[in-house]
Amino acid sequence: MTDVYGPEKRSAVMRRVKGRDTSPELKVRKALTKLGARYRLHRKDLPGNPDIVLPGRRLAIFVHGCFWHGHDCARGARVPQQNRDYWVAKVERNRARDVRNLAALEAAGWRAEVIWECELKDAAVLEARLAALLAAR
């Protein structure tokens, strides 16, 4: 089965997929700000370039999209019908990279947490989880 878009249109669609300042990331940042946390964004000197970093607490937070990082929820388990082999391999590479980055952060003495896109549906639960992360030192 071929792609429903031509190469130019497919390229334009994929270019619009953001890697920073995504809506899930903005929700987490808003919740952290509400809790009074001070943070930095996208520290390039840390493994994996974490989305949110709280340097005083040595806490790095990754906000992962379920599809792109292969979460075990319904959205993450979805595999496109077009170019299936490519997408399966891509998600597996992303997962392997995530494991390496988390291990490298922990080896460097950082606490690393992953917040999944599907976990952002309930704001109260998200706030409670973030408050617990901030309280644990």
Key structural traits:
137 residues, alpha+beta, Endonuclease, Chain A, 4-stranded mixed β-sheet, 6 helices, 48% helix
Give an account of the 3D structure:
It is a single chain. The protein is of the alpha+beta class and 137 residues long. The protein has six helices and four strands. It has a single domain (7-135), classed as Endonuclease, Chain A. It has a four-stranded mixed β-sheet with strand order 1-2-3-4, with helices on both faces. Strand 2 and strand 3 form a beta hairpin. The longest helix is centred in the last third of the chain and has 24 residues, at 84-107. The chain is globular.
What percent of the residues sit in helical stretches (DSSP H or I)?
A: 40-55%
Integer count of domains = 1
Order of helices and strands: HHEEEHHHEH
In terms of DSSP E residues, the strand content is: 5-15%
Helix-strand makeup class? alpha+beta
| Top-tier CATH class | Alpha Beta
Alpha plus pi helix count: 6
Strand order across the largest sheet: 1-2-3-4
Report the average pLDDT across residues: 92
What composes the largest sheet?
4 strands, mixed
CA radius of gyration: 17 Å
| Full CATH superfamily name | VSR Endonuclease
Anisotropy-based shape: globular
What is the architecture at the second tier of CATH? 3-Layer(aba) Sandwich
Number of E-state strands = 4
Distance between the termini: 52 Å
Residue windows where pLDDT falls under 50 for at least 5 positions: none
- Would you give the CATH topology? Endonuclease, Chain A
